[in-house]
């Protein structure tokens, strides 16, 4: 992509973000977290990533998974919806906890299925009439979405590293496509890490308190919308307002960060009841509420940049692709070359003197 086109994209992306923020502050929140994470990236991340154009693109992509919801397709919602949350209380109802979740998505589903079959009286109740996308049996897939996307970033880095290791045969188109994939997956994961820093994405009390409510917390279903956007707008929270308070990227194990992802979610879950307490006291709309939401944003950004770094550091040469490129190199070396012309013909053939 030419520099002029990149500049045009940057302006267009910034304009779109501004327009959507006017009617969807929840998108503004994701944009802010992605921007803060980008701004905290260290110099060890290649310079081609750390450009204004890529910052704008990452911010745009940070809201992409929510745009998928706009299709109102049960098939798409079936796979996309649960990736945005994890109702921890319901996970515990199935006999699991954040610190011992099955390592793989399908194992998690299998364990839930077995529990419902063996203990139908203990499983969370279902409401089939409200289950158009057939997701009620699953309390959410957020940690799996984050972990899987983190490795997709690593995979894209591996592809790029391998192309870069064969500069004589890798094409500019291949290198550009590989860089594009890195940014694409970095942008997509930013949405889900942003979700993981919002307390109402970690609880069954996501749209107001449900069930027994001895503390008299709000049961207003609009509470979630207010936290996603209203309170952010009320306190004028953005990447600009927080730019001087950037936190260092959190450290994630570059080979296996599953435990750390669970710990990240546990921190957010621990904030569920304090958030309801702030609403009940009226402090949510005051300075304590502002500081609470700011802390969520800053934590989310530190986690996101840490996962980006771990993905980069865990990428290795793709051995299969390397073999293909080595074969391409051998083919090029074996290809016959045209013998150079001599005398005046050589000058004409090479354009000498021009």
Task: Tell me about this structure.
There is one protein chain. With 354 residues, the protein is mainly alpha-helical. The protein has helices at residues 3-23, 25-39, 52-61, 64-68, 74-80, 88-93, 105-118, 142-164, 172-196, 223-234, 239-242, 258-269, 272-281, 287-313, 319-334, 343-350. The longest helix is centred in the C-terminal third of the chain and has 27 residues, at 287-313. The chain is built from 16 helices and no strands. The chain has a domain at 3-69 and 140-313: P1 Nuclease, CATH 1.10.575. Helix 1 (3-23) runs parallel beside helix 3 (52-61), helix 2 (25-39) crosses helix 9 and helix 8 (142-164) packs across helix 14.
């Amino acid at each position: 992509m030419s520099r002029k086109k990149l500049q045009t994209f940057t302006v267009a992306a910034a304009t779109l973000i501004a327009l959507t923020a006017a009617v969807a502050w929840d998108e503004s929140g994701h944009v802010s977290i992605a921007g803060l994470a980008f701004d905290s990236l260290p110099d060890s991340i290649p310079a081609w990533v750390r450009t204004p154009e890529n910052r704008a693109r990452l911010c745009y992509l940070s809201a992409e998974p929510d745009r998928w919801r706009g299709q109102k397709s049960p098939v798409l919602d079936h796979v996309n919806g649960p990736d945005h949350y994890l109702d921890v209380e319901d996970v515990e109802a199935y006999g699991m906890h954040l610190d011992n979740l099955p390592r793989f998505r399908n194992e998690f589903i299998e364990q839930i299925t077995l529990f419902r079959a063996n203990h139908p009286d203990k499983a969370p109740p279902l409401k089939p009439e409200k289950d158009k996308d057939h997701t009620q049996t699953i309390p959410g897939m957020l940690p799996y979405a984050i972990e899987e996307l983190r490795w997709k970033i690593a995979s894209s880095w591996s592809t790029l590293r391998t192309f870069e290791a064969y500069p004589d045969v890798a094409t500019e188109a291949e290198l550009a496509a590989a860089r594009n994939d890195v940014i694409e997956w970095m942008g997509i994961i930013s949405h889900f890490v942003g979700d993981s820093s919002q307390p109402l994405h970690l609880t069954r009390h996501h749209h107001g308190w449900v069930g027994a409510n001895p503390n008299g917390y709000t049961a207003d279903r609009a509470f979630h919308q207010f936290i996603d956007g209203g309170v952010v707008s009320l306190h004028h929270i953005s990447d600009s307002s927080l730019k001087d308070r950037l936190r260092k990227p959190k450290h994630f194990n570059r080979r296996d960060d599953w435990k750390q992802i669970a710990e990240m979610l546990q921190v957010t879950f621990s904030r569920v009841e304090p958030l309801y307490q702030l609403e009940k006291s009226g402090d949510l709309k005051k300075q304590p509420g502002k500081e609470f939401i700011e802390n969520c944003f800053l934590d989310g950004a530190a986690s996101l940049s840490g996962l980006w770094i771990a993905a980069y550091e865990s990428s290795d040469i793709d051995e299969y692709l390397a073999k293909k490129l080595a074969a391409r190199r051998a083919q090029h070396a074996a290809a016959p070359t045209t013998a150079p012309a001599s005398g005046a013909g050589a000058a004409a053939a090479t354009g000498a003197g021009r």
